[in-house]
Design brief:
The protein has 149 residues and is an all-alpha fold. The chain has one domain. 79% of the residues lie in helices and 0% in strands. Helix 3 packs antiparallel against helix 5. The mean pLDDT is 85.
Length: 149
């Protein structure tokens, strides 16, 4: 009995194995052919890495606190100081820290999803090998029946 099925892997499989899981650091603009786009992306990323630390938040809070004594005497000035100076200066780095944590979590999730997909592909190949072995056994049974009949 001839084989009734020939396995052909999907073309995406080889590309997926070569590339690996997509991560936050794989952004196309960091490797863009245009040098201006590449410079802007790398410069912006560098500033974000520097500003996106809790140490920067502490430094900004210290800077904002310098102007607190001159604004504490008036409720209106105090509210303006809190909203315009303190919150804007301090929350920016804290938000970036949170986004960095979320990006790292997304990268970890992408890696796990990639590993899950690879495991499913491995299982599918094992099933295919099992089916081929069954086909061979069925072919042997059919040959015996044909010879006996």
């Amino acid at each position: 009995m001839s084989t009734t099925f020939t396995y052909e892997p999907h073309p995406h499989e080889a590309e997926r194995r070569r590339r690996g899981p997509v991560k936050t650091s794989d952004q196309r603009k960091l490797h863009h052919p245009n040098p201006f786009v590449r410079f802007n992306a790398r410069f912006g990323l560098r500033i974000t890495v520097i500003v996106g630390t809790m140490w920067c938040a502490y430094a900004f809070a210290s800077i904002a606190l310098i102007s607190l004594p001159s604004n504490i005497h008036s409720t209106q000035n105090l509210i303006l100081w809190i909203s315009s100076s303190f919150l804007q200066l301090v929350l920016l780095p804290i938000i970036i820290v949170g986004q960095n944590i979320q990006a790292a979590t997304a990268d970890k999730r992408a890696e796990e999803t990639y590993q899950d997909a690879d495991a499913v592909l491995h299982e599918a190949r094992q099933i295919q090998k099992h089916l081929i072995a069954q086909d061979e056994q069925i072919a042997q049974i059919l040959r015996r029946l044909a010879a006996a009949g």
